[in-house]
Amino acid sequence: SRVGGDAKNVGKQMKSLFSKMQETFGDIKFNLATFIPQGTTVSNDPLNEAKTIISELSDIYKFKKTIELDSSKSEVYTRIIDILKLKYHVGHFAFYEVNNVTMERKLIYSTEEDTICFEKTNKNALECRAHRTNTVTISTEFPNLCQACLALNTNYVCIPFTINKDISLTVSMTSDDVKEVELMKKNISSIKHYLEAAKPVIESQILMEKLKDTSLRDGMTGLYNRRFLEEIIDKIMSQAARNNDTYAVMMLDVDFFKMVNDTYGHDVGDKVIVALSKVLKENIREADLAIRYGGEEFLVMLSNATDEGVLQVANKIHSAFASLSFDVGGETLRKTISIGIAKFPTDGDTIWKCIKYADTALYEAKNTGRNKIVEFKSDMYKSGEDF
User: Fold this and answer.
1) Three-class SS state of 277
2) Averaged over 280-300, what is the pLDDT?
């Protein structure tokens, strides 16, 4: 039998209402999708899809609010790693930071001892197909797709992401199971949403690192300054105590430097200082520190060097600087340096004491003719001053 009267009208109204609701939820889904451009699901049910997108937005919002309070870039990276592990349950992956200027790639985290990439990729990130093309690289799309990949029998999904002109990130996920790769592919856009949320926070952290680094470096030479030494010395002492590290402290001073400024002007004096800083950089290891301590005075800290090694470095610096010549209006200017050396913990039980003792040895070098290297002896220091 046919429905008539009021029942028919109610039916029409209900049908119209459901149609409008469906249309409204479709609009809501469409508007929500503008926050997550590529969408997170494919469904014919706009209400369910809207719910999924709202849930995703909520998670990303909480993630963003959390990382905004993190104090360093490395903390933010740890959050991203946790998202990959705990939200997406990625069992095998590597997370990289790429320097877009030098093209060096640094491994931040890996679930495996060995990654799937050739070592050359870390020296030149352009070897990485994902980074070079700035597109997601999926091994199942073409045989031997990335030529920089060692693992011919392992599937991978590599996601590149640009933070700014200085830094990019790469997430390299791997699996032997093709089904797992399909799941990774479905999660690509969602993972990118988290990286997008992290982008402004990471950019801010990079800027803060640059500003801090600028305040801790000498503008003329690019070496660390005395303020840096004051900030880092306690960390060095703590690490030395844990690892039984030793340090050789060298204080260096340009002989008769005031005469250079007075005779030839400060421009020439600056050239001499820059040249000495270059000599220091060229003759110490990456693990060592070179610091512009004062006007023409420099401090070098050599970590875990033998007594012979310390003297060898000191002699190399001394002779390399003495061999330099500076053109000053047709004349040739040559300069020398004096060096004082003290060792931690042999000469003093704190690095500050050893800095003072190295300075005392430098003073001894000055007083006994300059242009020489002097190692600290306890009888040089007679003031009895405590530290």
Assistant:
1) helix
2) 93
- Would you say 129 and 147 are in contact if contact means Cβ atoms under 8 Å apart? yes
Backbone phi, psi, residue 141, to 5°: -80, -25
Of the CA atoms within 13 Å of residue 67, those in its CB half-sphere come to 28
Residue with tokens 């797709």, as numbered in its chain: 145
CA 315 to centroid of chain Cα atoms: 33
Tokens found for residue 18:
């459901």
Q: Using the structure block, give the residue that is written with the tokens 């409204």.
A: 24
| Alpha helices (H) along 216-333 | 226-243, 257-264, 266-283, 307-322
Residue 369 falls in which region: left (phi positive, over 0), alpha (psi -120 to 50) or beta: left
CB 106 within 8 A of CB 137: no
For residue 382, the one-letter residue type is K
Tell me whether residue 300 is exposed, middle or buried, using C-beta atoms within 10 angstroms of its C-beta: 0 to 12, 13 to 18, 19 or more: buried
Give the separation between CA 326 and CA 335, rounded to whole angstroms.
Answer: 9
d(CA 3, CA 101): 75
Helices 351-367 & 226-243 angle (0-180, nearest 10)? 120
Strand 337-344 and strand 247-254: pairing?
antiparallel
Nearest-angstrom CA–CA distance, 321 and 323? 5
pTM above 0.70, yes or no: no
Q: What is the mean pLDDT of residues 101-126?
A: 93
Long-range contacts of 214-220 (CB under 8 A, 24+ apart): 218/277, 218/292, 220/270, 220/273, 220/274, 220/277, 220/292
Element (H, E) at 249: strand 247-254
Residues in the chain: 387
247 pLDDT exceeds 90? Answer: yes
How many CB atoms are located within 10 Å of the residue 216 CB? 17
- Inter-residue contact 65 to 139 (CB < 8 Å): no
80-103 pLDDT tens trace: 999 999 999 999 999 999 999 999
In whole angstroms, give the CA distance from residue 175 to residue 153. Answer: 9
Which pair of structure tokens corresponds to residue 219? Answer: 């503008």
The phi, psi pair for 6, rounded to 5°, reads: -60, -35
